[in-house]
Amino acid sequence: MTWVAWRQQRFQVLLSIGIVAVLAAVMAFVRFDALSLGGNEALIDERYGTYLNYLRLVLIALPVLLGMFAGAPLFAREIEHGTHVFGLTQSIGRTRWWATKIAVAGIPVVIAMTVLGLVNAWSSAPLQAVMFGGRLATPTFEIQGLTLGAYTLLTFTLSAAIGLLMRNTLAAMVVTVVVYIPLLGAVANALRPGYGTPITSRYQDIPRDAWVVESSYVDAAGNQVSFSPAGCTASINDCLTAGGVVQQVAYQPDDRFWSFQAIEAGLFAVLAVALLGVGAWALHRRLRLA
Amino acid sequence: MTTIALDATALTMRYRRGWGLRDCTFQLPTGRISALIGPNGAGKSTLMRIATGLLRPTGGSIEVLGEAPGKRGTNRKLAFLAQDKPLYKGFTVEEMLKAGAKLNPDWDSGYARRLVREADVPFDAKVGTLSGGQRTRIALAIALGRRPELVMLDEPLADLDPIARQEVMQSLLAEVAETGMTVLLSSHVIADLDGVCDHLLLLADGRVQLHGDVDDLLTQHRILIGSRELVLPDGVVEARTTGRQATVLARTTDVPGWDNTEPSLEELALAYLRSTKKVAA
After folding, report:
1. Cβ contact (<8 Å) for A82 and B84?
2. Which residue of A54, A253, B113, B267 could cross-link B263, Cys pair, CB 3.0 to 4.6 Å?
3. Cα–Cα dist A143/A134, whole Å
């Protein structure tokens, strides 16, 4: 079955790996070129500001694109063409047919995207100074480290499961996009700030590249107060001092980057396993082939 | 070795919208070519798909060569050719044969290749470029490459031109004669099956209407032609009148007073199919 699945999927697998390889090559070049600028932030920003904008765009879209193109047609197109009847009336079991197809189509692209995320983390290190908000903030967190592979795993298993349930490639793609984008936003805003207990400090004391997750105004006693800079005629700091008010922030320090990456990747991996379960259920209970 | 190819007991398949099969009990003997006849939607495909394990029945049971269809793929001794002859369009014929070999431990490569050569289809042709007849021959070669004891063909001749129909049928019958395979062949074109099949299973509305050895069934039935005033015998399947004359198909021996003839397979099947339609309507 492995050969059959590979023969069916090879174009899509090789194309995905090709795209990833080109991007990885660009990233490697960027790293060495940026290092040659000797840490001159103005120069780095001038040369790579636009690159970073496009890179964010491409790398946010890539997991859903590659995951979906691998997963959505995997079963849905077979059902559309009736070829699943061929596969399932040979001497191999239904589970093996399903698992082999999942493995052959999914594993290469998930590994490739994970490698790409690691390459980008390595490549972006010299550019970090010009990236707004540090590595933990959206969208920098999403495009490097382990997340790229984890997001691809999710979109792949999601579109494969939906393809089995809805038996329609296009519908599987639409559902994947419709579920994935809000999911990513919800995780970044609702869950990620809580991956670790935030550190509280005065606004002036937050370290470089920290990710500010909460901000409030407190008086000398530490009670929260409301403060509006609207009626302030002097500088905001002067007004704050005059009112005895301090801006207090909660932040996640940059050195939590890899543990946050691991937590987020783990979260998406758990979701992916659940989706595989849905797919297995659909395979045995719902796949009516009349 | 079992002498029963398919053994169905109260086999029932209920879909969300209506019935696929209702309480079907029958046995198909091995070593025969059985015709599965019925109108579209009668349950022919449902029956075959249950036997392969593609579908799980909602009631009753079926045994294929003594074994219930399981989860481990289709019974190794059973080959199934679906109506639309599903093959991977992007594969070449050679690659399709390789797929057959990879998916079936009992694969007979020499035999499958011989069937492809006999069909005169180039090995490097893409499956998507083949004509309907060629495609059917390749699908048949792959089905038979598993060296099945029982082969089930769902409407194998539909959408083929008359020449291709003849070629496919000849090729199939030659292999059956050589190997002694049991065949279950479905069609709604009864003329295709006449003279080929020696066993009959007639389905309508998901129920078994008629079932048995073709020669026995023909001997047990008569077409009666006579005046419409004559008394009808017992066992009338269908009676039609035109003017003063009545034409009756009945399960009976010769009836005095009528003009008695033995029906052909087509006449027999059509009479049963029309009679079930009238009851349903």
Report:
1. yes
2. B267
3. 13
Q: What is the DSSP letter of B90?
A: T
pLDDT of A290 higher than 50: no
Determine the structural domain holding residue B231 and report its residue range: 220-280
Looking at residue A231, what DSSP letter applies? Answer: G
Q: What's the number of CA atoms in the CB half-sphere (13 Å) around residue A105?
A: 27
CB-CB neighbors (< 8 A) of B53 in chain A: 88-89
State whether A87 and B54 contact (CB < 8 Å): no
List the domain boundaries for chain A.
2-195+255-286, 211-252
The DSSP secondary-structure symbol of A190 reads I
Distance of residue A159 Cα from the nearest chain B Cα, in angstroms: 21
Summarised one tens digit per residue, pLDDT across range A130-161 is: 777 788 888 889 999 999 999 999 999 999 99
Residues B72 and B209 placed together within one structural domain of the fold: yes
Q: Is the pLDDT of residue B176 over 50?
A: yes
C-alpha dist (Å) from residue B174 to B108, B177, B178:
17, 5, 6
Complex ipTM tops 0.90: no
Instruction: Provide the whole-model pTM.
Output: 0.88
Select the residue of A83, A89, A290 nearest B74 (Cβ to Cβ): A89
